[in-house]
């Protein structure tokens, strides 16, 4: 099968994610190196979305590939009735690396969505055990028991937790609408923690007003008798790369403690060093009860993890954890992940990500001073976006939530960068996605910023008054 042939075969037989299938025209790839995709027709394309944010270490990292080759000669997969060295090592490493005490437990799956499903189910089962299994009479709860145990999950509108039933139902992203009206019950959406588009004003008072509303929402949804957990991304990903304002997560942790709720941090995008820390939640100095990892965890293998704190995991010492999945603890994926952790924690790696991430942010903010269509520049580490607006004063966006799959200037910019500058960025985001592999060099950053500078002429032209 020649190069053109396999691309045509794929177009004919593969269902492309989140797309109408007519017109699917994949670009045939010859090989990948570092941050670059090399096509069969000689193009060299920079992957500015890190392959769905999965290849934090770039393509073909030699240490990871060496670990995978060695593991393939030993054990690729056995069920969890058996133990393998990489599976045990990865579970221990994650338990020790995650904020909090070392006696955590880890459930392995193959995707962030599956890991979120495990987190939601684990939170609900933990609350079930808390109510019914803690003694002959259960525990005292704050409201009448119209429903047997706490089950509601509080999420936020600007969120995406995955495409499986429970994860999509707990997502505010417009992709949830594809599942409606058959969403899983028991999800309530709280206000977003979005300094640029706050519904509560600005500054510390706005943060407190937001948190006050979250607490009001919890009480009106039944308090600790009905609500099991709060599910959040430490930095919102697909819905705008939104770091929370100062004080938000500390306040959210206090609220969860006051109401006996679990705090779930979905680090599917932000984990594995993406923000310059192993976990993005480390920027805020708090300990979640459950942490979700996915995407970059297994590097080149589908692997995700749900890390349960000691408090939560002990709930299942004598009670069944009613969840499972084929390929859980896949030895090959765990070997890749252990090698990835070794790289991330090698001398100076994460420090360089933080330092070069600050440089990237400075370069992007400089663009905003010259392009009126840029309303906001925000991010952490190697996780940035430029939000595009029609008017800086009103903050009217160039792509609204209802236009995720509608062609707008955002999709025009994506096409320009791919066709004219050999840079691949997603076309369905709410701004320009700037998410390079963590191994990106400063020379490559300069190349990217120069290309984005040119692309912003398209959005500037879109808001320019017509000539008289």
Name the CATH homologous superfamily of the largest domain. Type I PLP-dependent aspartate aminotransferase-like (Major domain)
Distance between the termini: 56 Å
CATH architecture assignment name of the largest domain: 3-Layer(aba) Sandwich
Helix percent reads 25-40%
Strand order of the largest sheet: 4-10-9-8-7-5-6
Strand content: 15-25%
pLDDT averaged over residues: 94
Radius of gyration: 23 Å
The main sheet comes to: 7 strands, mixed
What is the tally of helical segments? 13
Unreliable runs: none
Strand/helix succession: HEEEHHHEHEHEHEHEEEHHHEEEHEEH
Q: In total, how many beta strands?
A: 15
Q: Which CATH class of the largest domain is shown? A: Alpha Beta
Structural class: alpha/beta
- The overall number of domains is 2
**Form type:** globular
CATH topology of the largest domain: Aspartate Aminotransferase, domain 2
Please characterize this protein's 3D structure.
With 468 residues, the chain is an alpha/beta fold. The protein has 2 domains: 171 residues, Aspartate Aminotransferase, domain 1 (Alpha-Beta Complex), CATH 3.90.1150.10; 276 residues, Aspartate Aminotransferase, domain 2, CATH 3.40.640. It has 13 helices and 15 strands. The strands form 3 sheets. A 7-stranded mixed β-sheet has the order 4-10-9-8-7-5-6, sandwiched between helices. Strands 1-2-3-14 form a 4-stranded mixed β-sheet. Strands 11, 12, 13 and 15 form a 4-stranded antiparallel β-sheet that branches. A hairpin with a 2-residue loop joins strand 11 and strand 12. Helix 3 runs antiparallel to helix 10. The longest helix has 22 residues. It starts with a helix and ends in a 5-residue tail after the last helix. The mean pLDDT is 94.
């Amino acid at each position: 099968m020649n190069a053109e042939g396999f691309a045509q075969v794929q177009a004919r037989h593969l269902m492309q994610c989140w797309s109408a299938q007519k017109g699917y025209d994949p670009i045939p790839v010859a090989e990948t190196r570092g941050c670059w995709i090399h096509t069969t027709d000689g193009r060299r394309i920079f992957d500015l979305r890190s392959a769905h944010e999965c290849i934090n270490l770039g393509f073909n990292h030699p240490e990871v590939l060496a670990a995978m080759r060695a593991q393939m000669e030993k054990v690729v997969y056995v069920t969890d009735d058996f133990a393998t060295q990489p599976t045990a090592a990865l579970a221990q490493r994650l338990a020790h690396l995650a904020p909090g005490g070392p006696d955590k437990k880890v459930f392995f799956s193959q995707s962030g969505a599956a890991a979120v499903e495990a987190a939601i189910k684990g939170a609900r089962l933990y609350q079930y055990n808390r109510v019914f299994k803690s003694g002959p009479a259960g525990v005292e709860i704050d409201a009448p028991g119209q429903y047997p145990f706490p089950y509601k999950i509080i999420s936020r509108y600007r969120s995406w937790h995955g495409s499986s039933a429970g994860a999509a139902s707990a997502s505010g992203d417009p992709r949830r609408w594809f599942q409606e009206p058959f969403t899983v019950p028991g999800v309530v959406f709280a206000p977003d923690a979005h300094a640029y588009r706050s519904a509560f004003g600005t500054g510390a008072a706005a943060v407190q007003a937001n948190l006050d509303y979250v607490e009001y929402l919890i009480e009106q949804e039944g308090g600790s008798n009905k609500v099991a957990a709060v599910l959040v991304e430490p930095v919102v990903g697909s819905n705008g790369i939104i770091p929370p304002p100062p004080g938000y997560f500390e306040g959210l942790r206090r609220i969860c403690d006051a109401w006996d709720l679990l705090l779930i941090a979905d680090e599917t995008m932000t984990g594995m060093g993406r923000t310059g820390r192993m976990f993005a939640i480390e920027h805020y100095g708090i300990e979640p009860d459950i942490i979700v990892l996915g995407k970059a965890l297994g590097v080149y293998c589908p692997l995700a993890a749900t890390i349960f704190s000691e408090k939560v995991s002990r709930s299942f010492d004598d009670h069944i954890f009613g969840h499972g999945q084929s390929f859980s603890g896949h030895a090959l994926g765990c070997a890749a992940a252990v090698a990835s952790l070794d790289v991330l924690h090698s001398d100076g790696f994460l420090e360089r990500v933080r330092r070069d991430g600050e440089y990237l942010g400075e370069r992007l903010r400089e663009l905003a001073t010259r392009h009126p269509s840029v309303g906001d520049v925000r991010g952490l580490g190697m996780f940035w976006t430029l939000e595009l607006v029609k008017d800086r004063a009103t903050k009217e966006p160039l792509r609204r939530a209802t236009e995720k799959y509608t062609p707008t200037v955002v999709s025009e910019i994506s096409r320009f960068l791919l066709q004219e500058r050999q840079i691949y960025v997603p076309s369905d985001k709410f701004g320009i996605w700037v998410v390079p592999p963590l191994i990106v060099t400063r020379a490559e950053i300069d190349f990217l910023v120069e290309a984005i500078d040119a692309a912003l002429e398209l959005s500037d032209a879109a808001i320019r008054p017509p000539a008289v």
